[in-house]
Amino acid sequence: MAPAKKGILERLNAGEVVIGDGGFVFALEKRGYVKAGPWTPEAAAEYPEAVRQLHREFLRAGANVMQTFTFYASDDKLENRGNKLTFTGAQINEAACDLAREVANEGDALVAGGVSQTPSYLSCKSETDVKAIFKKQLDVFIKKDVDFLIAEYFEHVEEAVWAVEVLKETGKPVAASLCIGPDGDMHGISPAECAVRLVKAGAQIVGINCHFDPMTCVKAVKMMKEGVEKAGLKAHYMVQPLAFHTPDCNCQGFIDLPEFPFGLEPRILSRWDMHKYAREAYNAGIHFIGGCCGFEPYHIRAVAEELAPERGFLPAASEKHGNWGAGLEMHTKPWVRARARRDYWENLKPASGRPQCPSMAVPDGWGVTKGHADLMQQREATSQDQLKQLFDRSKTH
């Protein structure tokens, strides 16, 4: 019988670096297994081999947390705006847990069950109604005995607190991650205050995921850390940002960019950018470091390689990757062999190859959030009349 693995809090309490995986919905959408728009994770039940393979690639790249592919797997999201599935939420959540556990057992990885923000909250449903949705997902995580729980991708700290209050009832470790930037949540609550509320609700790990680039997310987590410490509380910190540069984003993040979601490729961070991100996060006192939308396994490998001195080992995938481009020493062309050095890649300013394109965009900025009529959700498909109203309105923004 294999020895018991150390839990997430045991690892963080010992000062270990924990590396998360990447952005499954974006990665699987590009591979043809997720539909952009609903972004729901039925692939866990429909195409388990695709989800299993992506887990394995992140494990090989150095991740030691396998998050269940349960993003947006609440029943109200699975049925939102005409989305029709042949699998129930429970079937999707169970399949996702089984896949994550199977791959986690192939290495020294833990399984994290995750819940996300809900259409019901945006539609102003009651705290009781929203908590019932989280509880339904949680029943599967308890049945499958995940190692810890994450409430992630919340734009409003109020809903995240509700999620934490439900998750903590299991007695399992709870992490909470908001998709906000330094300006705070969508109701203007600062990152510092958000973190304090989450810790008081019962989260032992707090941080930021998605919506913004790595350095912006690290900045927001630093603000969280300052707030928690000022309040005399204790927590561990996590960050799982985008793999896209977002210097032009407003408080809503990358979903306001005109390129979202199908034209973001020119903004992708290089593996060398990921080295800088990993070091910046670690130096800020963040020890749970991963990625969200846009992150591919090679990005996670770069994080693991940068933090190999702290972790004491390289990831398995480094056998096919020379440190700082060292593998280029074997290239046939001499000018490419001349690039086999750290200072070349650290100082490179990559060109986009798009001479007619701007370097920055103008975000949409409609300025609506929970409670606004535009964000009321429905089970029925979006009608043509509703779409026409949106098309006409977009011309004025």
TrEMBL record:
The keyword DNA-binding does not apply. GO terms for molecular function: betaine-homocysteine S-methyltransferase activity; zinc ion binding. One of its GO terms (cellular component) is cytosol. Its cofactor is Zn(2+). GO terms for biological process: L-methionine salvage; methylation. The keyword Transferase applies. It holds the Pfam family S-methyl_trans. Gene3D superfamilies: Homocysteine-binding-like domain (3.20.20.330). Residues 6-307 form the Hcy-binding domain. Keywords: Metal-binding, Methyltransferase, Transferase, Zinc. It comes from the Eukaryota. Homotetramer. Involved in the regulation of homocysteine metabolism. This is Betaine-homocysteine methyltransferase.
